[in-house]
Amino acid sequence: MSHDPWRMGFHLMPPAGWLNDPNGLCQLGDTYHVFHQYSPDWPKQGAPRGWGHFWSHDLVHWQGRSRGFAIVPDTADEASGAYSGCAAPFEGGARLYYTGNVKEPGDFDYVRAGRRSAQILIEATADPAAPGGLSLGEKNVLLRNTDYPAFCTRHVRDPKVWREDGSWWMLLGARDLDDCGLVLVLSSKDGLAWRNSGTIRTTKPFGFMWECPDRIALDGREWLSVCPQGMENRPWANGVRDQSGYLPLSKGETLGRTGATELDADLFRLWDHGFDFYAPQSFVDESGRTILIGWMGMPEAGFAGAPDDMTWCHCLTVPREVVAGKDGALLQRPVHELEALRGMRHELVGNGSLTLGEHRADVLLAHPEGPLELLLDDALVVCWDGAELALRFTDKAVGCGRAERTAACDDLRNLRILVDSSAIEIFANDGELTFATRWFPRLPTLTLSQRGQALLHIWEMGDGVAGTYE
Ligand code: FRU
Known about the structure:
By secondary structure, this protein is mainly beta. It is built from 1 helix and 33 strands. The strands form 6 sheets. Strands 24, 25, 26, 27, 28, 29, 30, 31, 32 and 33 form a 10-stranded antiparallel beta sheet that branches. A 5-stranded mixed beta sheet has the order 4-3-2-1-20, with no helix packed on it. Strands 9-10-11-12-16 form a 5-stranded mixed beta sheet, with no helix packed on it.
C-alpha cells in the first residue's frame, strides 16, 4: 500500500474496499468521530455495506479500524446494508441512527414493493477500551415502512437527528408515490418513539428522490441540505443525475417543525462545483463550529471512481467549516487545524513554475490581476477568465473520464487549492465557490505552473493519515 501513489495525506480513505457517504459525524469530548459507508470486500459483487469508523483529536491525524465494520449489517432488517445515518450526542456518548436497507428476493421494482427501509438506533457509550473510545450497543428498530405517511414509496432513508428545546427531531429523505422527492420530519420526546410531524417539499417538483437531508442552522437562520436525484436535465447539472446542494429558509422559518414547509427550488445552490462531491453531512462541534464533510465520489457520474487497478475506492473531503454568507449563500473553508500539516513554504510571483518532491500542497493565491491559469502536472488547469472559474483536464487519462467543470465568477479575490495525491479541493473567494475532484496523476512529484499575475504561497504538506491503521 505504501507504494500506491494515490494514497492521500489528509483525506480519509479506506484501507481497502469501497467508501461512500460520511455518517455519524460528531465530537464527543476530545474526540472527533467520522463514520462512513463502507464495503471492505469491494469489488466483489454484492459485497456487504455497513459503517466504517475513523476518529481524531485534531481533525488532522486520524486513526481507524484496519479492516472490518463498526456497524456490521448482520440483522434481517439490514440484510442489504446498514445505510447512511447520523450521530446525536447523548449522555457522554452518542445515539447512532441509520437506515437498515432490505431488498427482498423476488421479482420486485424496489420502489413500491420488495424494499424495506427501517430506521435503526444504536447507543454508542464511552468505553476507553473500545475503538475510538466508543462501544456500540444492540440494535433497536424504531421505524418501519408502515410507520411512514401513506404517500411514501419504499424509499425512506438517511436519518438526521438533533435535539432542540427538549424535543428530538428527525429528517428522513423520501420519494413519494408521484415520484417526487421530499423530506419527512418526525418528532419525539425521548429519541425512541417517533411520530410524523411535517414534510419539506419544494413548490415545484425537484427530482424523484431526496437523499441525505441535513439541517444547517447559523446566525438564527436555517438551511436544508439535500441530495436530489433526477437532476440530469437541469441546465446546471452537467448531465449528472444526482446533485448535492442547499436551500435557504426565510429568517425565523423552521424546517418542517410547524407542519408543511415549502421551499423555492429556484434558490437551490450546489455545495460544490467539482466532479466528485455528494452526500455531505454536517455537525456542530463543541466550540460551536458547523463542520461539513462530503463524499468525494459520485453515483452515476459517467466517469470512473478509480482506475481499474485500484484496490480501494473513494475518499472524503477535508472537514470544511461552514459560515453564512450573503443572500442565503453558505461559505466553506478548510478547518484551520489543517494548517498544522504545512511544511516548507515557497512563493511564485507571476509566470513561472515550481516542482515539489511530494504530491501534496496547500496553495494560497492572493491578488490576481487579470486572467489566470494554474497548471498542475501538465494534466489539470485551474483557470479564471474574468467571467468563469474552470477546472479543465488536459490529460484525459489523469482525469479518468473527467473533462471540465465551470462556475460563474466575475471577481476572483483569492483561491486556496489543497492538492493531496489523488484528491484536489479548491476554495475560491473565501469559500464562496468550491470544487472537489479526484485525479490520478502518475508522477511522484507535483509541478505547479502559473500563467498570469498573482502571488502564490505554496506550502508542502505533511501526512496526517499515515498512521491511521496502525
Ligand atoms: C447516498 C446513498 C444514501 C444511502 C447510502 C447507501 O450516496 O445512496 O441514500 O443511505 O448512499 O450507501
